[in-house]
Amino acid sequence: MRFESFSFAPEILRAISECGYQKMTPVQQEAIPAIRRGQDVLASAQTGTGKTAAFALPILQKMFDNPTETQRSNTRALILTPTRELASQIADNINDYSKYMEVSVLTIYGGVKLETQAQKLKRGADIIVATPGRLLEHLQACNLNLSNVDFMVLDEADRMLDMGFISDIQKIMQAVNKNRQNLLFSATFSSAVKKLANDMLVKPKLISVDSQNSTADTVSQVVYPVEQRRKRELLSELIGKKNWQQVLVFTATRDAADKLVKELNLDGITSAVVHGEKAQGNRRRALREFKEGKVRALVATEVAARGLDIQDLEYVVNYDLPFLAEDYVHRIGRTGRAGKSGVAISLVSREEERTLADIEKLIGKQLRRITVPGYEVGSRELLIKQIQKRRSFAKKQQREDNTGAQMIAEKNLGSRRVKVKNSSNKAPTKVKKIR
Questions:
Q1: Fewest CB atoms within 10 Å of the CB: 25, 254, 350, 397?
Q2: Closest Cα partner for 49 from 32, 23, 33, 26?
Q3: How many degrees, rounded to 5, is the angle at CA 51 between CA 48 and CA 57?
């Protein structure tokens, strides 16, 4: 189905045509009519399926149909997201969709001076895209009024709950106009998301276009078994020999990300890093240079797993597998977007095999293994036997040590008993009386 089928305003159709959009994705086909009818929506769809357009386009159309002047310290649409990156991405997309309309969009998140944002909020904005924590700060400082909100959107709701934003969200919901339209988008329908939906939504339209925790068919997934200590070496070889030009690499920790970037740069692979300890300006610059092709590898922690929209990104590498199997789905969702093909590579050490098994169980498929000559990993069964043998030997040694210690203790105890016995049989000393 094409966008023209839903009678969008010419200004909106022109803008989305310039974005390269032609056919609607499944979630867009189901969500757009419901939102335009004024229904609340609870939608579950995997990342990269066009969720932003699914809620932004009908909101823009309703604003176009019912124009109002922007009021100071007010907004008509509030969109909450878990991360700064996702907030910026959504705002950029909405600006693209509304480029031929008179619509103001404002992003509110941490890492920026509160006073600077407060000045912008006082001028008002038609659409505010915000992270919950920073928005709540402005609410408590009375920098904005949410009593005139017509549309409230929670994007990546499951991620926000995972990050502990439930209390902030509940406080924000209390401040928002009660007669609003609510839209909740989530990659998964956890029990926490369902509870939030029950508190927030009124007779919602339920949309689920993909099975939970499924991965896109456009993403080819492979595993490279490798020793942990040789991962960097293998990654450099794969990027170099296979001539990968744009690679998003995920590590487990910030320290690992910083170290990997230094080593890749030493290998001649231009790299940059994105994680929570980096200033917002540094993160934006790294992402911009990666998109422009100035940087070949972008190394990131989980903070970038959701919200990064990099056009035509072909390769995602799990340098370390994520702690949670569900996060694997979101990481590899950075590639294979909008129907385009992509490749997800996981470098898996023996210590990570159990996590890999959890991931395969979650997504319902076994991932193809590729062994690179020279990087072979020893047999897992042999490793287990060696570990069991070492444990058995250690237990035997412990038993022998305990037995030896017990014998020594008993010998010492026997010696003390003899001394005590001799002491008790000793004749009493006669005391000579002095006359």
A1: 397
A2: 26
A3: 135
SS3 state at 333: coil
| Unique residue bearing structure tokens 């600077």 | 116
Give the CATH number, domain containing residue 47. Answer: 3.40.50.300
Place of tokens 């229904």: 39
User: How many independent structural domains does the chain possess?
Assistant: 2
Residue that has been written with the tokens 């998003």 in this structure: 248
417 within domain boundaries: no
| Main-chain phi, psi angles of 128, to 5 degrees | -115, 130
Residue 427: inside a domain = no
Specify the length of the chain in residues: 435
Q: What is the mean pLDDT of residues 139-157?
A: 94
More confident: 244 or 379: 244
Place of tokens 């004024």: 38
Within 13 Å of residue 110, how many CA atoms lie on the same side as its CB? 13
Residue with tokens 């170290």: 259
Burial class (CB within 10 angstroms; exposed 0-12, middle 13-18, buried 19+) of 104 = middle
Question: Based on the domain organization, do 192 and 302 belong to the same domain?
Answer: no
Nearby residues of 138 by Cβ (< 8 Å), 6 or more positions away: 108, 114, 117, 118, 121, 144
Neighbour tally for 415: CB within 10 Å: 10
Shared domain check, 243 and 322:
yes
Which of 352, 378, 404 is a domain's end point? 378
Boundaries of domain holding 7: 3-208
Please write the tens of the pLDDT for every residue from 248-298.
Answer: 999 999 999 999 999 999 999 999 998 877 877 888 888 889 988 899 999
pTM exceeds 0.70, yes or no: no
Token pair listed for 194 = 């369902």
Is 94 in contact with 54 (CB distance < 8 Å)? no
